[in-house]
Amino acid sequence: MNVKQLAAEKAVEYVVDGMKVGLGTGSTAYWAIRKLGERVQEGLKITAVATSVASEEQARELGIPLVGFGDIDGLDLTIDGADELNHDLELIKGGGGALLREKIVARGSKRMIVVADESKAVGTLGQFPLPVEIVPFAWEWTVADLAKLGCTVELRRSGDGLYKTDNGNYIADCRFGTIASASELAASLQNITGVVEHGLFIGIAALAIIGKQDGSIEIIEREHGE
Ligand SMILES: O=C(CO)[C@H](O)[C@H](O)COP(=O)(O)O
User: Fold this and answer.
1) What CATH number has the domain spanning 130-196?
2) How far apart (Å, rounded) are the C-alpha atoms in residues 48 and 33?
3) pLDDT, tens digit, for every residue of 155-203?
4) Is 184 tagged catalytic?
5) Which one of 6, 24, 30, 95 is most buried, counting C-beta atoms within 10 A?
6) Could you report the per-residue pLDDT of 66-100, keeping only the tens digit for each?
7) 3-119+202-215 domain in CATH 1.20.120.530?
8) Where are the domains of the chain?
9) Ligand 1: which atom is nearest the Cα of residue 99?
10) How far is 153 from 26, CA to CA, in rounded Å?
């Protein structure tokens, strides 16, 4: 059973004619984009923006109509994956390196649906290293500032060199083990000048659709205003 596909295809049921849709990034969002492509070929009328070059290419191949950010002032719905999520729908994202674009797109959406398999649902965030996008300039100092927050930091690598995001920045993967307060940590991260954005998504996701190995689906909805 492909539980990522299960969750992703359930989320696509929330898409209706006329919607402006944000396309996430990663191996779960892949299935959502694929299903959306099928529905577009069957006549669904939507427009979309993508959160990464990879998702944009996938959408284009499937014939999903893409628009520029200058053509629309917001989105109705974004469907995206997560690396970890807790019961308050606080997320760690950025395992695929697209966290900055993902956060811009999710924040510009009336609703964000998170799609994940059950391994991503945790009691406390922090086992997954928190991805933080940082500018290459003086990255050594930024990494040192991040380490002062109580994590071990590894600059993400790709092949022989350093990994670069679609925006030309680096990713510092910060292993905290346990994140007691996501909002306090988010505030500390935002205070570090070399940080472009971090992978904590707080108060953004409205709904999580979690696919389980037994073929069932769990839905978690965030209380309004939480
Ligand atoms: O945040 C992300 C990419 O930046 C992904 O949504 C996250 O890494 C989950 O990916 P996957 O669905 O492949 O497990």
Assistant:
1) 3.30.70.260
2) 10
3) 999 999 999 999 999 999 999 999 999 999 999 999 999 999 999 999 9
4) no
5) 24
6) 999 999 999 999 999 999 999 999 999 999 999 99
7) no
8) 3-119+202-215, 130-196
9) 4
10) 23
